[in-house]
Design brief:
By secondary structure, the protein is mainly alpha-helical. It is about 70% helix and about 0% strand. It has 13 helices and no strands. The model has no long low-confidence stretch (mean pLDDT about 85).
């Protein structure tokens, strides 16, 4: 018997002739994915460097001390002033109002879907809740301006037509699906054995949720909170339409204000000459917004990794 005619089982190419083709296709797919990853990273780097270079040009004409300590923001006036905390305070105000509404409502909705709703109800309720996340932000903005503000003015006489309160409330409604969906995923992924252990120790369902389930899902819940905060800080159309474009250093939610994103929209309309100092302010405001969201995301990564190690 000629043993040379039998395939060598140690050589996979002889018993699987398509293996070489499969490896070629796999290599091509890896190369395509690598190109996509490189494009996304390169785009991010390009955006960051654009903000950095334009911000450097801005600070060659305006001192950092004036930028941080000035009490007014009027870069489009004949006597310009560049106090960034005017815009930061407005962004902070609308974000706090939104988070006061979105975080508890979203978390309670997540607990209801994960722990109390039946599997059939969960299959219907969760997609219905996530549909809210697909509503364009400009629709929320007109909803705040044309419905929420008139409703609030019916029992808050001092409320002006453009105000931070209605913008913050509608902004909170828009980010509820972010908190609810991500928190529900984190809570639902907690092992059943932890719940059963709590029940075996005599805990009620409420005690098991508060004392066992929520601490175990804390990293995912905090990640959803940080993502919601970043979304609130970076929201544009809702605050632009509902809060107005009046840069005022105030924490009064009943008056018009201008957030960082609303100011960027105002300057980007085309009335400001490109290359002017006023035009460069949109980049320094964008850089400030980028740094705020970067700090939030770094804190989120640190917090999630710390508590993941704690519960593993």
């Amino acid at each position: 018997m000629n043993t040379n005619l039998s395939p060598d089982i140690r050589d996979p190419a002889q018993w699987n002739p398509n293996r070489r083709l499969n490896k070629t296709v796999e290599s091509a797919v890896k190369a395509i994915f690598a190109v996509f990853a490189f494009v996304s990273v390169a785009t991010t780097i390009g955006i960051v460097f654009t903000l950095i270079f334009e911000s450097i040009d801005f600070f060659q004409e305006v001192s950092l001390w004036q930028f941080l300590t000035d009490g007014q923001w009027t870069p489009l006036f004949s006597n310009p002033q560049f106090g960034i905390f005017v815009l930061i305070s407005a962004t902070f105000l609308t974000s706090v109002i939104a988070l006061v509404l979105a975080l508890p409502v979203g978390l309670l909705a997540a607990i209801c879907l994960s722990e109390y709703a039946s599997s059939k109800a969960r299959r219907w309720l969760k997609p219905a809740l996530e549909i809210l996340a697909g509503v364009p932000s400009i629709v929320f903005g007109y909803f705040a301006l044309l419905l929420v503000t008139p409703f609030l003015r019916s029992f808050i006489p001092g409320l002006q037509g453009f105000n931070a309160l209605s913008a913050g409330l509608v902004l909170g409604i828009s980010i509820i699906p972010v908190v609810a969906s991500l928190s529900e995923d984190a809570i639902y992924s907690v092992p059943r054995s932890l719940r059963e252990g709590a029940y075996a120790l005599g805990c009620t369902k409420r005690e098991a949720i508060i004392g066992t389930v929520l601490p175990a899902a804390l990293s995912g819940i905090v990640a959803s909170f940080i993502l919601a905060i970043s979304r609130a800080v970076g929201e544009t159309m809702i605050v632009t339409l509902a809060a107005g474009q009046n840069p005022t250093l105030t924490l009064n939610p009943f008056v018009p204000i201008a957030t960082m994103t609303a100011y960027i929209v105002q300057v980007s309309l085309g009335d400001t000459p490109a290359g002017s100092l006023a035009y460069k302010t949109i980049f320094v405001v964008g850089m400030t917004l980028f740094l705020i969201t970067l700090v939030l995301n770094i804190f989120s990564f640190w917090f999630v990794s710390r508590f993941r190690e704690k519960y593993e």
